[in-house]
Recover the amino acids of this structure.
């Protein structure tokens, strides 16, 4: 079942990095909470700051009116009375600045410069105020007005350092609260995202398990929300998929048993036919001319039938896993040349092999290379080339021809059993050669692939580990789609 699940001819998708959506959801929650808390904290600070300063101005304005009334008792302002006024106010804990024929502060440390706007407002007979720059120390609020019955001006100076300190503490507290809200939002967002996306993670793991052949995988259905509906639909799909694949597997098993039974039953009568055909071939020259042609066709077809039965027997043994490996050290160049001599292809195949040695089963390797070469010789064209070289931990064999090539639509099925690019084309092949090559490649832990360009030829590439096949050879191999012009 696991092997059946592996797709043919589909490129592997890029790996998906888990947790991206969870991180994005967490960041979104943190951003919403952070921006909301920041706006709330900033707005609260701005409102409280404005309210506190407004209250200070109102309180200072009321005190200034009272001080102006008191100052009116010192009119007319002689030098002596001016000194008494300043001493009186300073003694009561109030800093003032008297402007008459000059500027006279009650305390030289609290004598801020008076702005033109403030002076103009006071000159117009109204109360005015000004506040020192935020970075100034001490921070001073100046409220002034004209002394009743006089042209002199009195400015009351209020220190606002306490208000600034309170606002600084408030800003620090709001900032700390904002940081705490962001941290809590991150923790809550992470937990919420994890729990919200947990069904998605379960579905992803279940889908991955299905692709690995674990067809009994199901999702738990909890509650009545959208994820529960999704899980139920997934389970229905998995059930239908399992039923379909099991039915296909049973049909495939029946097909393989039928193939094995037919090959076994045909073996004995075909052996007798081969013996008779061999005898007939030895006496073809003794036959009349009109019978000789029929005899030649009969001999040829019996040989093809014998090859078909032998291929069916081999593919049946491969399906049943009854093909043990006999691993030894193999000289790639010597093996290729022995294949060419045995099949009389020495003049048709150019061998380009450096000193390449590997550990593998020589009989299985010969079956793979022999079938690939047969396919190139019989269905390709031009010069056939065989190369072998090391590529990292692997040894790579390449069989190329200069034939007509294969259209792209045929490549995904070229390793299928009995598949031919042109069904109407007759030839000596059984249609199982490439399928047998693929199965033997898997058995050796190798990877068999092919690429072809119509009009430019075909190239087979067979890579297998130089150190020998893995222990579980049947699980290590694989193939990629592509092909030459038909199976031998």
């Amino acid at each position: 079942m696991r092997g059946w699940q592996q797709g043919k001819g589909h490129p592997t998708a890029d790996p998906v990095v888990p947790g991206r959506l969870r991180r994005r959801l967490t960041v979104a929650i943190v951003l919403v909470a952070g921006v909301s808390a920041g706006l709330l904290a900033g707005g609260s600070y701005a409102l409280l700051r404005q309210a506190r300063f407004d209250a200070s101005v109102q309180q200072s304005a009321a005190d200034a009116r009272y001080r102006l009334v008191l100052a009116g008792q010192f009119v007319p302002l002689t030098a002596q009375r001016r000194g008494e006024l300043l001493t009186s106010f300073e003694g009561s804990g109030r800093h003032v600045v008297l402007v008459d024929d000059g500027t006279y502060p009650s305390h030289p440390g609290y004598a801020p410069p008076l702005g033109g706007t403030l002076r103009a407002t006071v000159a117009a007979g109204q109360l005015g105020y000004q506040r020192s720059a935020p970075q100034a120390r001490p921070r001073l609020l100046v409220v002034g007005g004209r002394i009743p019955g006089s042209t002199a001006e009195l400015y009351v100076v209020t220190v606002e350092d306490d208000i600034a300190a309170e606002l600084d503490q408030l800003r620090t507290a709001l900032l700390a609260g904002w940081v705490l809200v962001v941290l809590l939002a991150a923790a809550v967002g992470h937990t919420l995202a994890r729990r919200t996306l947990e069904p998605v993670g379960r579905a992803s793991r279940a889908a991955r398990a299905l692709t690995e052949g674990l067809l009994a995988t199901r999702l738990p259905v909890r509650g009545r929300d959208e994820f529960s509906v999704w899980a139920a639909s997934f389970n229905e799909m998995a059930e239908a998929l399992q039923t379909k694949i099991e039915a296909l597997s049973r049909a495939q098993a029946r097909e393989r048993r039928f193939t094995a039974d037919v090959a076994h039953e045909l073996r004995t009568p075909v052996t007798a036919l081969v013996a008779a055909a061999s005898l007939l071939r030895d006496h073809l020259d003794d036959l009349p001319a009109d019978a000789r042609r029929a005899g030649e066709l009969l001999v040829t077809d019996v040989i093809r039938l014998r090859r078909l039965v032998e291929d069916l027997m081999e593919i049946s043994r491969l399906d049943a896993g009854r093909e043990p490996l006999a691993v030894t050290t193999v000289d790639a160049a010597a093996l290729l040349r022995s294949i060419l001599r045995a099949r009389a292809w020495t003049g048709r195949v150019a061998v380009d092999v450096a000193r390449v040695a590997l550990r593998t089963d020589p009989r299985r390797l010969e079956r793979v290379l022999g079938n690939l070469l047969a396919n190139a010789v019989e269905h390709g064209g031009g010069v056939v080339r065989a190369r072998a070289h090391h590529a990292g931990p692997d040894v790579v064999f390449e069989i190329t021809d200069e034939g007509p090539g294969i259209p792209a639509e045929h490549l995904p099925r070229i390793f299928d059993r009995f598949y031919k690019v042109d069904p109407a084309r007759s030839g000596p092949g059984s249609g199982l050669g490439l399928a047998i090559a693929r199965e033997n490649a898997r058995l050796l832990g190798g990877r068999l692939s092919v690429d072809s360009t119509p009009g430019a030829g075909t190239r087979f590439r067979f890579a297998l580990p130089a150190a020998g096949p893995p222990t579980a050879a049947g699980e290590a191999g694989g193939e990629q789609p592509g092909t030459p012009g038909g199976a031998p």
Summary: The longest helix spans residues 226-282. The chain has eleven helices and 13 strands.
